[in-house]
Amino acid sequence: MPVPEFILAARAKIGHDLMWMPGVCGIIFDDDERVLLVKRADNGQWAPVTGILEPGEDPIPGLVREIREETGIEVNVGRLAAVTADGPISYPNGDRASYLTCTFRCTYRSGTAQVCDDESLDVGWFSLDELPGLSERQLDRIRLARSPEGSAWLSDGSQAAAFDARQ
Description:
Elements: H1 5-14, E1 18-29, E2 35-40, E3 46-47, E4 49-52, H2 59-71, E5 74-90, E6 96-110, E7 120-126, H3 136-145, E8 153-154
Parallel strand pairs: 1-6, 5-8
Antiparallel strand pairs: 1-4, 2-3, 2-7, 5-6
């Protein structure tokens, strides 16, 4: 997908200055506990599906949208696995960004995983013992999302308290 319009509008005002953005990441498991990864077009690296939330978009619907746009599959979003600050990242055009990323454990529901936009070169399911070369950050995200239950990890190393909205 092209750069979202709201980012282009902000960049027209701030140039390449550091921009703080809300991000989402889906660690998607199938019934065999394989992980779905995409090979990113911008750097050729394998990674989980990530994306930027649109203004006013909640994290879960935004993540479902990103996964559908990038891979063509539908998922069930499970628990929040981690909240991290990522960056700053410098892009080839000079833009700089940092992200507050909410990582969720997801499970495959339907569809055929495939490249659906220009953000990815390839899409594939990988067993946990045959993961392609991933960054430590991506390996941590997968490790933190493996369990279907548990508290979210926060980037200061603390464990978030389990949250039940019904109480």
